[in-house]
């Protein structure tokens, strides 16, 4: 278990002062947490303060009981002694070294717990890249090497600053898979920064949402993303496993069956996304005939209302966000504990691969 | 070319290399410091560092003569330990180094400004201290720009005349560098006999500028 406590203030301009306070406990079931919020809300500066690349005007950062910064007590552990790895969106691989040289740079200076180079190379499939110059790498390869380099520095915490934002769609989801894999395989907690709901929903178990330099909410991902005020739906990110060769039948965690709009190989795992606005709620008592292929029974967990929308969190084997109109919510008498059936069309599912 | 001309060329080459050796560490240090730091009075320091570029070289030479003369604050000490500067080849090196410094410093600063500082930040999160980052990240990434600075400093040293003649004089075989030899030729034999030496100076300067620009271009890539 790793605990990160952050309570820092830093004036960035006459109009903008970063003032954030949050704490995350990373466990084996939730190794990845996220800082989520729009561009310019202070996410990257918060990471720089945690890594020690910038100094706060006031406050403290504590990792596993070790005080990294305490302005009042005059403590500032330099970044090279913090054992906190950072992966930037541009990778920032050293251009004067090849891939192997970049890995060795980190390995030689590792100050935290050692990770075997061969394991990192195998986990991130870097074998074929070691002799390459960094200029010859694709965006996805570059981020894999950057991730491997950060791991070899022996970090107690990995900071991932929008690591896939410069990549194309296919590479994005591939690199996210690697992030998940290494966090679990090497048991390294990670703090993931992004303004993309889908990435946060897919990766993180807990989230702090930042708004204009302040923490607006902290908590479990489903609840924080559900409360997020932006217009548009919340992406529900689902992990599905194909059950049959050559058709779209798949099952979700908990064995619930769904039909995907693409074919896959038996036991192949895919990530897919359904917007909260694309899900229809029905009463379990109404036996409606519908073209929607996917019907997930569940229970209303939480209800949040605003003028034009009621956003519900439904526990339906997986937590689902669903947006309905206030009129529909009233007609179905939706409240915490209500039994409902969530339905959505196969073609409203976007498969992320 | 006659023996005296070869001698002048050889002396210029030695003086140029020695001046680069003296000037480069200082230019790298000042260039790095001013490329990466902001502080009050930075503009004043920058102005002082490039002053020899715009001062009349004879004025710089005069200032060096006051400093390194037998009764000067540095000259007395150096004379006492057997390293006189005035009217020696060391004087040529000092004058060339001082005149070449502004160009070398500016090229070094540009080279360091071209290195994205986020690389240094990432290196620190990977366990590197400040000196380690400088030696293993910043210097290698600025390398081509620093070589360009060295070549530029060499070319400037080889072409140096005004400050040299004041501080080191015109002693054949001792302080008669290429430009001083050109001056001497014109004084003694008129303009006709100078073309070989003049062409040599043009060729050296052109070659150095082409090489320096080639390295600077690689550094910007």
**CATH domain class name of chain B:** Mainly Alpha
H and E string of chain B = HHHHHHHHHH
In total, the number of domains of chain B comes to 1
What is the CATH fold-level name of the largest domain in chain A?
Answer: Rossmann fold
Share of helix of chain B, binned: over 70%
> So how many helices of chain B?
10
The fraction of residues in strands of chain B falls at under 5%
Radius of gyration of chain B, Cα only, in angstroms?
19 Å
Give me the side-by-side strand order of the main sheet of chain A.
Answer: 7-8-9-3-10-11
Mean pLDDT of chain B: 91
For the record, the count of structural domains of chain A works out to 2
Q: Could you give the count of β-strands of chain B?
A: 0
Fraction in helix of chain A: 10-25%
Question: Ends of chain A: how far apart?
Answer: 32 Å
Unreliable runs of chain A, pLDDT <50, ≥5 residues? none
Tell me the span between the first and last alpha carbons of chain B. Answer: 41 Å
Biggest protein-protein contact in the assembly: A-B, 27 and 18 residues
What is the CATH H-level superfamily of chain B?
MetI-like
Which structural class should the secondary elements of chain B be placed in?
mainly alpha
- Quaternary structure: heterodimer
Architecture overview:
The complex is a heterodimer of chains A (353) and B (221). Chain A has 353 residues and is of the alpha+beta class. In chain A, 22% of the residues lie in helices and 35% in strands. Chain A has 2 domains: 2-227, Rossmann fold (3-Layer(aba) Sandwich), CATH 3.40.50; 271-352, Beta Barrel (OB fold (Dihydrolipoamide Acetyltransferase, E2P)). In chain A, strands 7-8-9-3-10-11 form a 6-stranded mixed beta sheet, sandwiched between helices. Chain A has a 5-stranded antiparallel beta sheet with strand order 2-1-4-5-6, covered by helices on one side. A 5-stranded antiparallel beta sheet of chain A has the order 14-13-12-15-21. In chain A, a hairpin with a 5-residue loop joins strand 1 (2-11) and strand 2 (17-26). The two termini of chain A are 32 Å apart. The model of chain A has no long low-confidence stretch (mean pLDDT 90). The radius of gyration of chain B is 19 Å and the shape is globular. Chain B contains 10 helices and no strands. Chain B has helices spanning 3-36, 42-54, 57-68, 75-80, 89-113, 117-125, 130-158, 162-167, 178-189, 195-220. Chain B has one domain: MetI-like (MetI-like fold), CATH 1.10.3720.10. The A-B interface holds A 48, 51-53, 78-80, 82-86, 88, 90, 92, 94-96, 105-106, 109-111, 149-150, 153-154 and B 116, 118-119, 121-129, 132, 136-137, 140-141, 143.
């Amino acid at each position: 278990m790793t605990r990160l406590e952050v309570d820092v203030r830093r004036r960035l301009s006459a109009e903008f002062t970063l003032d954030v306070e949050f704490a995350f406990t990373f466990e084996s079931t939730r190794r990845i947490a996220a800082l989520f919020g729009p561009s310019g809300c202070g996410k990257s500066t918060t990471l720089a303060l945690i890594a020690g690349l910038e100094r706060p005007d006031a406050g403290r950062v504590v990792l596993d009981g070790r005080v990294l910064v305490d302005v009042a007590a005059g403590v500032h552990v330099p970044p090279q002694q913090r054992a906190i790895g950072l992966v930037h969106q541009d990778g920032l691989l050293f251009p004067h070294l090849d891939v192997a040289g970049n890995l060795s740079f980190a390995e030689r200076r590792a100050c935290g717990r050692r990770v075997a180079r061969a394991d990192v190379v195998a986990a991130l499939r870097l074998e074929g890249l070691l002799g390459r110059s960094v200029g010859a790498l694709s965006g996805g390869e570059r981020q894999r090497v950057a991730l491997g380099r950060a791991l070899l520095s022996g970090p107690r915490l990995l900071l991932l600053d929008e690591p896939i934002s410069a990549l194309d769609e296919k590479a994005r989801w591939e690199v996210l898979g690697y992030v998940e894999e290494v966090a679990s395989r090497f048991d390294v907690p990670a703090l993931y920064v992004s303004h993309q709901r889908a990435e946060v929903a897919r990766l993180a178990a807990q989230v702090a949402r930042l708004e204009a330099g302040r923490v607006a909410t902290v908590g479990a991902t489903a609840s924080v993303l559900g409360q997020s005020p932006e217009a548009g739906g919340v992406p529900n990110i689902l992990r599905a496993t194909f059950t049959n060769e050559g058709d779209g039948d798949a099952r979700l965690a908990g064995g619930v069956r769904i039909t995907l709009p693409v074919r896959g190989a038996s036991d192949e795992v895919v990530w897919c996304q359904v917007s909260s606005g694309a899900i229809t709620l029905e009463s379990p008592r109404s036996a409606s005939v519908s073209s929607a292929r996917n019907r997930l029974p569940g229970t209303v967990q939480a209800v949040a209302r605003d003028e034009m929308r009621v956003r519900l969190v439904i526990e339906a084997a997986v937590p689902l966000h669903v947006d309905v109109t206030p009129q529909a919510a009233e007609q179905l008498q939706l409240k915490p504990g209500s039994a409902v059936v969530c339905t959505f069309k196969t073609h409203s599912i976007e498969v992320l691969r | 070319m006659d023996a005296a001309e070869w001698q002048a060329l050889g002396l210029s080459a030695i003086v140029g290399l020695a001046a680069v050796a003296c000037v480069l560490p200082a230019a790298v240090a000042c260039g790095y410091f001013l490329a990466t730091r902001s502080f009050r009075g930075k503009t004043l320091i920058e102005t002082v560092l490039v002053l020899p570029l715009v001062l009349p070289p004879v004025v710089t030479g005069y200032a060096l003569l006051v400093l390194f003369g037998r009764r000067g604050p540095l000259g007395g000490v150096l004379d006492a330990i057997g390293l006189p500067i005035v009217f020696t080849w060391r004087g040529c090196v000092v004058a060339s180094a001082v005149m070449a410094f502004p160009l070398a410093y500016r090229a070094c600063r540009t080279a360091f400004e071209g290195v994205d500082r986020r690389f240094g930040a990432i290196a620190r999160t990977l366990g590197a201290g400040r000196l380690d980052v400088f030696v293993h990240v910043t210097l290698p990434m600025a390398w081509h720009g620093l070589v360009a600075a060295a070549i530029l400093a060499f070319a400037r040293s080889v072409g140096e005349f005004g400050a040299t003649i004041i501080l080191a004089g015109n002693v054949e075989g001792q302080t008669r560098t290429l430009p001083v030899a050109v001056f001497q030729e014109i004084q003694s034999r008129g303009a006709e006999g100078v073309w070989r030496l003049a062409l040599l100076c043009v060729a050296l300067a052109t070659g150095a500028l082409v090489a320096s620009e080639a390295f600077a271009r690689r550094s910007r890539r």
